[in-house]
């Protein structure tokens, strides 16, 4: 291939890739944001309160879900567990206990003592850190899931185990990836998540365990991420406020699916509250919107015009991102249990700035662009 042809091919591919994200987003209908964004949770809370135990609850997703459940059903409905100390000043954390998910009898003890009926299993090693410590990833992600499912079987619990876009691989169709398709991931994280999906489905069909699983895209929240490939989409906001610039470890044209935190929490509580008879499967895709680093940078510039981005590619994370879907088809979840995300990219940028500014006491306000 001549140099000119190869440059043209790269540019064409780049345009196609970006077009894939833009076309996917333009076809999606987001619910208009309600005046009260918590109204959707109030509707679900008409049902009787579950007794929930969250593992890995001090990670990126656990604290947010704990707050949502407590908002819906009061302080006593969630038992938070993890193996790390509660960060100082974390006033949202209560009813917290040490629980190592590699210790089955400790899980069982907590379930019995607290009268738990629902296990939400968030403990895991994410994609980037998993590659750095494969034996530990196997322990936490595979042995942990085995232990959780066994306890769910013995005590007849409902159990939620999240999966991820990482459960797909380079041979999976990358645009609008359906619920049922090729799953040949190339990371230990992905391999362990396919195992969790399959084992959960097996426990459901063999033992009747009420296993439920959602494949999340990258989640954007105002809590620090735990070592994944999509983490840049959070770090970019911290850097914008602290330094006005971000150095991204992914190529500017890397399209990945993402979802804002509140939509993620809503998907979990809504899916767990859904009547089992409405579920055609136990593992569903859910997603928000897709973008590239250069597109999120452009969205940030709408509120912070001087924001700058440059690129220092991390080959490991880039290879992982290149093996993942660019967008997910979540029509099954929409059809079967009424899934409907509310946040698109611009709303996510607005809320992330608002939340992080509140955290930093408003000292690093973005300049609002004049219309
Ligand atoms: N954050 C994201 O973008 C996405 C997350 N997910 C899944 O959602 C779940 C939660 O993710 P995050 O909160 O982001 O992860 P995280 O890495 O922020 O938190 C995981 C937690 O697991 C705990 N943990 C590790 N070893 C443990 C052990 N032996 N016993 C008990 N706890 C242990 C850690 O201390 C940590 O607090 C994971 O299963 C992850 O695969 C799926 C797709 C996207
Ligand atoms: C998409 C995920 O599962 C996670 N955020 C990761 O990047 O590892």
From TrEMBL:
Pathway the protein takes part in: Amino-acid degradation; L-threonine degradation via oxydo-reductase pathway; glycine from L-threonine: step 1/2
Domain NAD-dependent epimerase/dehydratase, residue spans: 52-286
InterPro entries: Epimerase_deHydtase, NAD(P)-bd_dom_sf, NAD(P)_epim/dehydratase
Enzyme Commission no: 1.1.1.103
GO process terms (BP): L-threonine catabolic process
Any GO molecular function: L-threonine 3-dehydrogenase activity
Reactions that this protein is recorded to catalyse: L-threonine + NAD(+) = (2S)-2-amino-3-oxobutanoate + NADH + H(+)
Family, similarity comment: Belongs to the NAD(P)-dependent epimerase/dehydratase family.
Function according to Swiss-Prot or TrEMBL: Catalyzes the NAD(+)-dependent oxidation of L-threonine to 2-amino-3-ketobutyrate, mediating L-threonine catabolism.
Stored PANTHER family: L-THREONINE 3-DEHYDROGENASE (PTHR42687), L-THREONINE 3-DEHYDROGENASE, MITOCHONDRIAL (PTHR42687:SF1)
Name by which UniProt lists this protein: L-threonine 3-dehydrogenase, mitochondrial
Native organism: Caenorhabditis auriculariae
């Amino acid at each position: 291939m001549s140099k000119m042809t190869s440059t043209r091919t790269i540019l064409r591919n780049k345009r196609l890739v970006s077009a894939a994200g833009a076309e996917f987003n333009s076809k999606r209908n987001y619910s208009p944001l309600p005046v009260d964004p918590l109204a959707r949770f109030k509707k679900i809370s008409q049902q009787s309160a579950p007794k929930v135990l969250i593992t890995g609850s001090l990670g990126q997703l656990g604290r947010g879900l704990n707050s949502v459940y407590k908002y819906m059903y009061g302080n006593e409905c969630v038992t938070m567990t993890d193996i790390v100390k509660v960060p100082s000043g974390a006033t949202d954390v209560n009813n917290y206990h040490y629980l190592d998910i590699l210790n089955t009898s400790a899980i069982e003890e907590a379930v019995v003592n607290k009268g738990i009926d629902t296990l939400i299993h968030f403990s895991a090693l994410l994609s980037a850190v998993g590659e750095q410590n494969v034996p530990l990833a196997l322990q936490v992600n595979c042995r942990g899931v085995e232990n959780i499912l066994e306890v769910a079987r013995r005590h007849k619990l409902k159990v939620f185990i999240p999966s991820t876009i990482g459960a797909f691989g380079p041979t999976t169709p990358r645009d609008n990836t359906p619920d049922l398709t090729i799953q040949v991931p190339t990371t230990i994280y992905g391999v362990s998540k396919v195992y969790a999906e399959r084992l959960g489905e097996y426990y459901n069909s063999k033992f009747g365990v009420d296993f439920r699983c959602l494949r999340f895209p990258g989640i954007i929240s105002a809590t620090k991420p735990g070592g994944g490939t999509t983490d840049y989409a959070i770090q970019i906001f911290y850097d914008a406020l602290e330094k006005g610039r971000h150095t991204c470890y992914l190529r500017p044209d890397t399209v990945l699916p993402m979802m804002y935190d509140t939509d993620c929490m809503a998907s979990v509580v809504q899916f767990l509250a859904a009547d089992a008879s409405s579920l055609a499967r136990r593992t569903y895709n859910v997603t928000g919107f897709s973008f590239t680093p250069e597109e999120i940078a452009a969205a940030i510039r709408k509120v912070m015009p001087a924001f700058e981005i440059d690129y220092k590619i991390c080959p490991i994370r880039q290879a992982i991102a290149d093996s993942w879907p660019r967008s997910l088809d979540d029509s099954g979840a929409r059809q079967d249990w009424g899934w409907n995300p509310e946040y698109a990219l611009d709303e996510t940028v607005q809320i992330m700035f608002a939340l992080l500014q509140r955290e930093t006491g408003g000292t690093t306000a973005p300049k609002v662009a004049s219309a």
